[in-house]
Structure formats: C-alpha cells, structure tokens
Amino acid sequence: MHCKHKAYVSTAAAVVLLAGGPAVAAAAHTADAARTTPAAAPARADVDAAAAVAAALKKYPGVVESLDKDGAVWHVDVIAKNGKHAELTVDTRSGKVFTENADDNSDDGGNKAVVAAKVTAQQAMKAAVAAHSGQVSSVEWDDDDDNGSRYWNVEVKSGDKTTNVHVDATSGKATVSGSDSDGDGNDDGNN
Question: Measuring CA to CA, how many Å separate 161 from each of 3, 79, 100, 155, 183?
Fold first, then answer.
C-alpha cells in the first residue's frame, strides 16, 4: 500500500509539471509560503502635534491651552468652553488618549482668555511652521500680565535645532524669537 501512495504522488507531480510546467509548481509553492509566512507589519509613523491635538479634542472638546511632547506621549491641556480644565496624554504610537486629571472647578480668570483668543493653538502651530519649517514639539499659551500681550509660544524642531516662535493670539502674526541648536535649552541667538 505504501508503494501505491508514492506512485499516486509521483504521478500527480508529473501531471502538474507536464500540464502547467515549472511556473504552476512555483506558483503553488509561493501560495503555500504566503499562507504560512506572517505578513510584515506596516511601518507606523508617530502621532504628530496636530494629530495629538485632534485626538485630545475628540475626547475632551474645548480649546488647547498647551501641548508638549515628552518621550512616548504628548501632554495636552484642554480648557472646555465652560472653563473646566483637563490634562490629557496622547500615546505617540497608537494615538490613544488618557485623562490624567480633570477638575470640575472652572477658573474664571486665566481660562477665559484662552477660550476667547481669536487664534487657537492649532492655528498658532500652522503659523509657526509657516514662519520656520520643522515639526512642532510644544505649544503654550502665554498671557503676559505686565504689558497685556497674549500670544502662543511654539517650539519648532528641525533636526537638532529648536526654534521658538511667538504667535500673536489676536493677529496670528508669527515672529521667530530665537533658537537652540545644541539642545542645552539656552537661546543661541540663531534665527
């Protein structure tokens, strides 16, 4: 019986080779390999600042007060239209949003200015990148009480260089204020 099995297998192999030639045999082998070999995972890009803001605002609707990348997460502070505040983190790989802290007490003073600003954090990021190309690494609301100016401080990274761009919260005008090319946090005065 063992000999008959070998004969059938040999005959079947010969028919495949005669009928379709080596191309059919190779195609059958490739199809088998594709079924048994796991597919490579697609390359995944990190979540950028704009995507982090969008994800945070989807979970907690309002206005972004600040955004800062810290390793594998974005920290996003959001002020709701009613003045309530939430601190969120957005995973840079998955885009998942986690609420770190949300307080029920509204801050009538400082939060109202952010909510009422004509230029949002998202618009400030776009203006900053238009003024100096690169990737946004942080955005922060700055309400300077000494002279009444209100602006967004946006850090834009390009290679190993970080450039600070101030964006006026009323006009949207972006002004490059300095850069740090050695990573020490001190303004090197380069523009």
Answer: 75, 30, 30, 10, 7
